[in-house]
Fold:
Amino acid sequence: MNSSALPHEFANAVELRSLTESLSLLEMLANGTRRAVGEEYLRSLVQHLSQALGVDCVLLGRLIQQEPEVVRTVAVWFRGQLVDNFDYPLRGTPCERVVQRSLCTFPDHVHELFPDDIWLAQNGMRSYMGLPVRGTGDKVLGILAAVHSAPKHHDAIQAAVIRLFADRAGAEFERLETEQQLIERTRQLEQEMAARLEAEQAIRRSEELNRRILECVPVGVLLVSKEGDIVKANEEAQRLIGYPEGVICKLRLDDFRDRTFFEDGRPCPPERSPVLQCLSNGETTQPQVLGIKHPKGHMVWCLISAVPYRDPQTKERAGAVITFLDLTERKRAEEERRKLEARMFHTQKLESLSVLTAGVAHDFNNLLTAVLGYAHLLEERVPADAEIVQMLKSIQSSAERAASLCRQMLAYAGKGRVTIRDVHLNDVVNDMLQLLKVSVPQNAVIRTRLRHDLPPISGDPTQISQVVMNLLTNAFEALTSESGTVTIETGTAIFDVRQQEAFDFGAGGSLTPGVEYVYLRVRDTGVGMDQQTVQRIFDPFYTTKELGRGLGLAAVHGIVRSHGGAVQVESAVGRGTAITVYLPVKGTQTDIPTRAN
Structure:
């Protein structure tokens, strides 16, 4: 399910119902259908959609091209079980309106509104919600409908959910059709090549035709002898393997032993290779996805299959025809989608933590107010030299420290009290360096590259100071054996749309293209972090130190986010860390005064 771009209806639904309930509904459906593919996925979809929506029946049907007024079901879940598929005419049914329009809902009396629909009447159905299943180019491929035997009000969340899975069903329809076409095309190609190789006289008469066919087909084709020698390679095969035909034809299958891999990264042993299996048993192999290491270092992913061919004169098995369908771009797109989903889930986690942190901080701060108030009252009512006075001062001191922690928690949640002023980042950096000079390791080297004409930002001076102090403190503590270099740099940056999409901020936020930002970059030559640690540094109270102190980068993230900025983290084990904070220049569309308004 592509959750990176939720429909507008789903966004409105979240405003009407709690985020937890909405995500639970989607999670239930996603977990129920995650492992299924193809027709199994479609059957799983109607089952779990029926359970999630609480209806008697969910049916998924396709329009028949030869008979556009007829729908043929591909999966039907009816009162707790899958039922056999059937055909039914559209005329006089609510599904006819779905195909002609878009989302159609009938909370009650649907069997009376469509008296010609015998199925509704026979099964006592009263409520209906349906949506067309669309494919590429907004073409209607079929319908997805939820029917119930009792009146049922269909809210915006249910409409958004059925729309999401209608879109997913449309993609599955097209994928199944494309996969079937690919299998049929591959089988036809293999049979055609085998037939030509079996008849030597026919091959000689149509040699030029065969050559042109090999060069025109959108798949790589190799001809391999039964001894494992490569005899022929078309242009697509040369591109995929990375060598010209003259070099390829000098290779043997054994030369690819260390260059062929499964999808999980494991090397493909010879006995598992579809080519060697075909040569050994003389049978056509099922298409298999394998990776081939390109000479330039990258991996080329292909759908590989092999079909045997026989000598046209002796009729004995002479070798195999291997076909390669390039899947590299598709694999890359799937990987990008997975990364985007992981980034979205991580962002949602941080948002949830922000809400939780803000609520705890507010309630805890209220309790601290009472503690401090009573402590002050008691201190006024006892003699100044009483033994209890020191205890009361300890209570007040601990409560003040707890209040400071509450302020950090509110800063992380982006809900801290903000005093808006013009802030000059260079001045804040110089002040923090002066303040922290006593804690700087003796062998540490501090280098500053501060742009002298840096424009001001609008923000809270105290919170901006906390950001700078946390970044500098982390950098100093990251230095090994109290030695190393910390470089502090300020400047401005403007990102266009292409740069903004290519720039990886992870969970640190995002920037608005075309807006000018002031940045502060703190780079150290310390121990660095692995990617697993980088993914968690914005989590509250997460630390890699033996003794953690407060919210650290979590507070930095909250403050920068509340100021309309973003944080970028670059780190590698043994190579140090660079953390860059971007804050909008005063007067831009994303600075704090505009956000506060």
Notes: Confidence is low (pLDDT under 50) at residues 1-6, 13-19, 546-550, 592-597.
